[in-house]
Design a protein that fits this description.
This protein is of the alpha/beta class. It has a single domain, classed as Zn peptidases (Aminopeptidase), CATH 3.40.630. The protein is built from 8 helices and 11 strands. Strands 1, 2, 3, 4, 7, 8, 9, 10 and 11 form a 9-stranded mixed sheet that branches. A two-stranded antiparallel sheet has the order 5-6. Strand 9, helix 5 and strand 10 form a beta-alpha-beta unit. The N terminus is likely disordered.
């Protein structure tokens, strides 16, 4: 996640959760994400071999090849000529990795949904106990892993009426540069974007919040209400700290919100109390709760399916 001022001075602030949950339209999808698959992807992305996945580095190049191969192996085509979308706004050669599954409905396939997460992190940093690699397990190999599992599901079942673009963003840690570049590029191409859904720091569960994720920009759209309606439970909710510290603007959803003026939001489980190693070498694979990750991704997939396949654009901006 983009650097947040005085990050750990906020522990102890009230984070009371608030959620409205309609009960209809419960999904009957029985698909379960494999925890072993989560472990395999997450362990590679967080390995020392990748040296913290700094944008423009040899380490992130290895990560991009891994993600390209994953898309290719699952029959997901590149959206552009190749999977690599070269950033136009960064001084080192860096790539978003972009895959695409065309919609199955003759009309709705002309509308697009973007599902994304940033795969970059901060590379080599000041050593702690001899460790100088910021492996970025929670931030944001966890979100990247979630996108790979969602992509594999839709590639397998091909049941998306709208077209879906899966994006692994680079240079988020440099100021959302990957998403700013791509949002502007797709806007120039006049893409009909329905919504953008972003995963950020989901590796450790929240405790006693009465929900699985919080949603940034909670009051800006009706996305939370629709997600919970589709899930039939409190899948997402609101944390006051999200508004206070403007987390809505701190991840890759935000450039799509500003460029397209459509719902574009992030789900996260990092609540400032459940993880102490933001931008530190101890943000390691071993601290991630992969069972939790598999469970929440499994819950999210049928919800995304309903969002993507709604007969009309049900998720909308709230009136100002």
């Amino acid at each position: 996640m983009k650097k947040i001022l005085c990050l750990f001075t906020f522990v102890g602030l009230s984070l009371q959760a608030q959620t409205n949950v309609p009960s209809k339209d419960v999904s009957t999808t029985n698909y379960k994400v494999s925890e072993d698959n989560v472990k395999n992807t997450l362990s590679y992305l967080t390995s020392d071999e990748l040296e913290g996945r700094d944008s423009g580095s040899k380490g992130i190049e290895k990560a991009s090849i891994y993600l390209e191969n994953l898309l290719k192996e699952n029959g997901i085509k590149p959206y552009f000529k190749t999977y690599r979308d070269t950033l136009s706004n960064y001084n080192k050669t860096s790539y978003n990795v972009v895959g695409y599954i065309e919609g199955t409905d003759s009309k709705l396939k002309n509308e697009f949904v973007i599902i994304g997460a940033h795969y970059d992190h901060i590379g080599k940093i000041a050593a702690v106990n001899g460790d100088d690699i910021g492996n970025g397990a929670n931030d944001n190999a966890s979100g990247t892993t979630a996108v790979t599992e969602v992509a594999k599901y839709f590639a397998k079942y091909k049941n998306n009426k709208r077209s879906v673009i899966f994006v692994f963003f680079s240079a988020e840690e440099k100021g959302l540069l990957g998403s700013k570049h791509l949002a502007a590029k797709l806007k120039e191409q006049k893409m009909d974007l329905y919504f953008m859904f972003n995963f950020e720091m989901i590796g450790v569960p929240m405790k006693d919040r009465g929900m699985d994720f919080y949603l940034t920009g909670f009051g800006k759209t009706n996305m939370a209400a629709k997600i919970n309606e589709y899930a039939g439970e409190k899948l997402v909710g609101y944390l006051p700290i999200e508004t206070k510290y403007m987390l809505f603007r701190a991840s890759d959803n935000y450039p799509f919100f500003t460029e397209f003026e459509v719902p574009a939001q992030t789900v996260s489980t990092f609540d400032f109390e459940n993880f102490d190693f933001y931008h530190q070498p101890d943000d390691e694979f071993e601290l991630m709760d992969t069972k939790h990750m598999a469970q929440v991704i499994s819950k999210t997939i049928p919800v995304l399916e309903k969002m993507i396949n709604a007969p009309k654009k049900e998720i909308k901006l709230n009136e100002k």
